[in-house]
Amino acid sequence: MEQKINNIIAKLHSPEISFADVRVTSTDFESISFENGNLKNYSNSVGSPAIGIRVLINGCFGFAGSKDLSEASIERLIARAKSNAIHGALFQKEKLSFPALKASTGEYIHHPEIDPFTMSKAEKLDYLSKVANLIKPQGQVVHSYLMAEFERQEKYYVNSEGSYSHTVVYNTLPVMSVISADSGQIQSRTWPGHMSAGRAGFELFHQQQFMENTDRIMKEAVDLLRAPVITEERADIIIGGGHLALQLHESVGHATEADRIFGQEISYAGKTFVKPHMLGNFKYGSEIVNIYSDSTDPRGMGFHPMDDEGVPGRKLDIIKNGILVDQQTSRHIAHKLGLEPSSNMKASFADDFPLVRMTNLCIAPGKGSLEDLIKSTEHGYFLDFTKTWSIDDNRNNFQFTTEIGYRIDNGKITGIVKEPTYFGITQDFWNACDAICGEEDWAYHSTFHCGKGEPGQVMRLSHGVAPARFKNINVSVKL
Amino acid sequence: MNDTLLYLKAALDKHPELKYTVDLSFWQTDFLRFYQSQTNYNISKDMLNLSATIYKGKRSCSFDIDDPGTAKIDIALASALEMIDSLPEDPDFVDVEDDLTLAPSRKMVNNIEAISLQTKTEILDSLAQSAAEHDFELYGTFICNYSGYRSLNSNHLDKSSAESPIYLEVKAVHRDSQITVLETFGGDDFSHFNLEDFRARLLTKIMYTKNPVIDVEPGEYEVILAPRCVAEFVQYLSYGMSAHALDQHSSFFEGKIDKKLFPGIVHITDDPTDSEMIRKDYGSGGHIYRPLKLIEAGCFRNFMCNQYYHHKLGLPKNGNTASCLKIAPGESSRDDMIRNVKRGLYISSLHYMNFINAKQTSLTGLTRDGTFLIEDGKITAVVNNLRFTEKITRILENILELEDTAYTIPFSENYAAFDIETVKAPHARVRNFNITSSTKTI
Question: Which member of A131, A221, B173, B360 lies 3.0 to 4.6 Å from A189 by CB, making a disulfide possible if both were Cys?
């Protein structure tokens, strides 16, 4: 394949093309789901191919992608990408700036502990069937669901500057959930939460202790049917890692994707309240809030030796001691902002156009354990397990509901509340952060489903977080 | 391209103990994305996919093959046959689709070929010049898809369909204030696109933005919901009208067939035959897609139900998928509806809605692309984007009047293969709409 994409890039060396890159991916995917203990779906695709060719002509990008890697298809894609750039340039006021970058190479072959594609199918199904049977409906639990998705993706990248990379990675998405019902009301509990994926193989099921938590979610789902709601207007809240990852994702991650500053995502995903003049002085959060983008950490799904336009993986501060200091950028946008490219240009598959994407966006750990943090909270709620999320066009006003809240009184958990809902304004919220747990509670939480771009792409990415406390948050939303 | 499909069918027919469904689908897009009144990127993309599900008794196994060929089919089928006996059973599976009704043939134009890139850029350039006179720039997408499939199954089903939807979404954004308004065109017949009408509608909305920008307090407001908002609320509501939601105990409509739930002016159908919309021939499993009454004069009439849930739940089968929703128009003019508002809001578009509790239809979301204050029957100010927390059923219960015209609104499906659907809806005047906070931004 290396030879094949080098041959393609050789065809793109011409005076009219100021930059070109070629990507090829081959993806294995397996999906298994159970409903109410019964196998509902077992499906797979093996070696699904994709190719994407991007050219920069007259200061405009043209792109063509396909699942067909035949020579005839490649010739057609080259012609189409060129035509798209040339015609796109007719509706353009300003040529796209794209400073040259030094060539680099990268190679990474990921080896999961348990390869989900080569392990015994009987062993895999036996484990999943056991878990599915443990959460089978009984009593007020009326529905259950267990899903496993496994992905292996091999990717080749080459560009006209001489950069080249080759990677093989495994990603796994495990999740289980139950629904309870009583008198026209339903409640749900999932495990291990909204961001349950990981850069791993089948071992992720064991790491996330599925077997050990079936009883817990069954009981909590039923208990929630009789649980009260939060009655206070405002409260201190501790947010667990799984849900805090989503809070970070929505209110910092997407807000600091710099393509949004220039309106490149307005038509779908939206804008951002962040403006270029805020860099270096905007107090995004309290002084203990340190947030960084790190595509060099292989533990997260955002790891890569280089991004999808040839920028080597980087670790960079986005928020340092509460101050906004950098952005997630493409080469073009970094140049417009006077920044170094952050290595955040990614496409889901080779036939997708690369976009500014989160990689591993993390909150640096603070000090102490979750247990200590709860002990130090006089009154409040520990919220985890995302149920609903929503944030505005500018990534400024958010509202989240979690499946469950654990009431804290005098440093102890004293009960549960259902559908705890909080909302806030991004800057106010992160400035209300007064404690972040330490390394012992810090972990990656990952998703398969970050949507962005048109045609839509769903990106695999990770957030490293530890539980954190936020003071005096508005929890008054009622219907 | 049918060779691979027929090759797989022939291989499966050698196993009389099996039931099966096989689908060969193609999809192409030409996609122009623009920002600041210029091209952002311009892409072409295509795919060819063969998918199959084989059933042996109550066991099943599926596979997908991109860029299919006989060698890949042999490997995938051998693997499926090898493992199917080891899979757990689904006791609720009975049979694959047995509705063999064919949809009437209709003329289909490949809009990727019919609407050239040059035509697209000329339209956008023309609109950009009009917007620039008011210090607005254009952002959005101009998409043409061409897709189709042929489906076969072991019950002798053999159906083909193709479609070529168009989606033009233009957001005009003020250069300084960032105030945004939205205009769209969607359908599969470009002869319905009238550039001057489109321009006039866009400029009318731009003129609304000449008013001052204000914030409003949380509370219950009388609102005029633009057709896009009505359409989107009904799309979310339709989740609970599916047999799947009923089976999950997550449907608001459980136990409510033929019950009066909404005002008598509310009629909702799933209608794939309207030529002003993107039409569909077949629904779930290849069942013929016919108009289906969902809400009639405020009464809930039917769940959308496929073969699987037909057998499992005993509901009538229809194959509908809520891909062609229509909310019937009422009797009021839009201008009269606005005139009837003493103090309220005009809401143009919604953003990032998510259910809090699907069974109760409670959700939260935000306004977007133009929220305006109405005072004494006139639009008097631009309002920052607002958050609402509501129940869709309560919104429908609180409808006071519906406009006498319904508009075709396109929506893109972004989480699977990029698909485009249309919904037809009128403006609605609704009381007591629950605004729960302001975003403080436009």
Answer: A221
Looking at the DSSP bridge assignments, the partners of residue B29 are B45, B145
Given a contact cutoff of 8 angstroms between Cβ atoms, the answer to whether A328 and A317 are in contact is no
pLDDT tens digits for A30-51?
999 999 999 999 999 999 999 9
Cβ atoms of B369 and B350 closer than 8 Å: no
Calculate how close chain A gets to B45, using CA atoms only, in Å: 5
User: What would be the CATH architecture of the domain defined by B2-208?
Assistant: 2-Layer Sandwich (3.30)
Look at residue A455 and tell me whether its pLDDT is greater than 90.
no
Of A93, A353, A397, the CB nearest to B437: A397
A24 has a pLDDT exceeding 80: yes
pLDDT digits (tens, 9 = 90+) for B356-399: 999 999 999 999 999 999 999 999 999 999 999 999 999 999 99
SS3 A224: helix
**Structural domains of chain A in order of their starting residue, each with its CATH number:** 2-225 (3.30.2290.10), 234-474 (no CATH)
- ipTM for the complex shown: 0.94
Exposure on the CB side of residue A346, measured as CA atoms within 13 A: 28
B33, B44, B90 member nearest A454 (Cβ): B33
Q: How far is CA A7 from CA A10, A18, A55, A104, A109, in A?
A: 5, 18, 15, 18, 23
d(CA A207, CA B71): 38
Query: Under a CB-based contact definition with an 8 Å cutoff, are residues B43 and B28 in contact?
Result: no
List the single best residue of A38, A40, A51, A91 to mutate versus B (max B Cβ within 10 A).
Answer: A91
Chain B positions in Cβ-Cβ contact with residue A41 (cut-off 8 Å)? 60, 62
What's the confidence (pLDDT) of residue A260? 95
